[in-house]
Specification:
137 residues, alpha+beta, 2 helices
């Protein structure tokens, strides 16, 4: 009986240690990402970005875990999302829930919504925002 209990315990622990799949990027999305950061220098990670830079038409989906926000002056903020936002861009949209009206911050919730069907198909949190600024300024 003890052997079965240890076996079950091992199976439970083993199932908790699986890693999340690494997001894959299409060649087109990789080129788009490279174009966004070309000629730019990464700055220190920031916890928040102003809401003015996080409008949906300025957001570029790179893969299931990476989004970029285009800002004034050629700056781009890259964010690596937590797990749960799979299927972004596959007929779905990323909708944010901000903790502060004037900024989008690490820990804010992002939901993947199918707007046509009006359903949420996933959610995750934002990580730090890495700014990429033109190297001349």
């Amino acid at each position: 009986m003890r052997g079965i209990s240890l076996l079950l315990l091992g199976a439970i622990i083993g199932s908790c240690t699986t890693t999340a799949p690494v997001p894959t990027r299409t060649a087109e999305r990789e080129r788009q990402y490279e174009q966004l950061i070309a000629g730019k220098v990464a700055g220190p990670a920031q916890a928040c970005i102003p809401t003015i830079t996080s409008h949906s038409n300025d957001m570029v989906i790179i893969d299931d875990r990476t989004v970029a926000f285009k800002a004034a002056g050629g700056r781009v903020y890259v964010n690596h999302l937590g797990p749960g936002c799979d299927n972004i861009g596959m007929g779905n949209s990323l909708v944010t829930r901000q903790s502060a009206a004037s900024s989008l911050c690490r820990g804010d919730i992002a939901q993947v919504q199918n707007l046509a069907a009006r359903i949420t198909v996933g959610s995750c949190t934002f990580g730090d925002f890495t700014p990429y600024s033109p190297s001349g300024g």
